[in-house]
């Protein structure tokens, strides 16, 4: 049977972490995760290479789990702890403008996509629950 992808857990918060994941955005090889206390975590998603599959055909489930355990699915690149004062409800990227959009506390804000610095809070969006 053919499948387009294999579902694997890649980001799990540790028990001592008091926050929870509120929003998630995949952008290229980056995974942006908005947390309940306003932090933004940026992960790099690694290609998982199944050596068993490349040498001996399709890998069995046991081989897949053992090779995945040796390699991290993601690496934490950075954490912006003061990204927002409130939980981050939604994230989006406007690639052409090099912008990251966030929805937090009913307001849409724009951030630089490289530095994640706040550029502008759009006050006319007050009370927003989502954007497209």
Explain how this protein is built:
The protein is mainly beta. 12% of the residues lie in helices and 38% in strands. It is built from two helices and eight strands. The strands form two sheets. A four-stranded antiparallel beta sheet has the order 1-2-3-4, with no helix packed on it. The protein has a four-stranded antiparallel beta sheet with strand order 5-6-7-8, with no helix packed on it. Mean pLDDT is 84; it is low at 51-56 and 63-69.
Structure at a glance:
This protein is mostly beta strands and 132 residues long. The protein is 12% helix and 38% strand.
Uncertain segments are 51-56, 63-69
Distance between the termini: 35 Å
Give me the secondary-structure category: mainly beta
Strand order of the largest sheet: 1-2-3-4
| Number of continuous helical runs | 2
Radius of gyration over alpha carbons? 18 Å
> Mean pLDDT across all residues, rounded?
84
Q: What's the total number of strands?
A: 8
Which sequence of SSEs, written as H and E, runs from N to C?
A: EEEHHEEEEE
Percent range for β-strand residues: 35-45%
């Amino acid at each position: 049977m053919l499948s387009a992808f294999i579902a694997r857990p890649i980001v799990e918060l540790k028990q001592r972490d008091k926050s929870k994941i509120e929003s998630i955005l995949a952008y290229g090889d980056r995974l942006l995760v908005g947390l309940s206390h306003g932090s933004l975590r940026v992960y790099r998603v690694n290609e998982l290479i199944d050596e068993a599959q490349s040498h001996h055909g399709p890998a069995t489930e046991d081989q897949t789990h053992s090779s995945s355990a040796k390699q991290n699915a993601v690496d934490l690149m950075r954490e912006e702890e003061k990204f927002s004062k409130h939980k981050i409800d939604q994230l989006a990227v406007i690639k052409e403008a090099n912008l990251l959009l966030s929805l937090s506390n009913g307001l849409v804000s724009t951030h630089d996509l490289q530095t994640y610095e706040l550029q502008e809070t759009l006050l006319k969006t007050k009370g927003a629950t989502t954007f497209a």
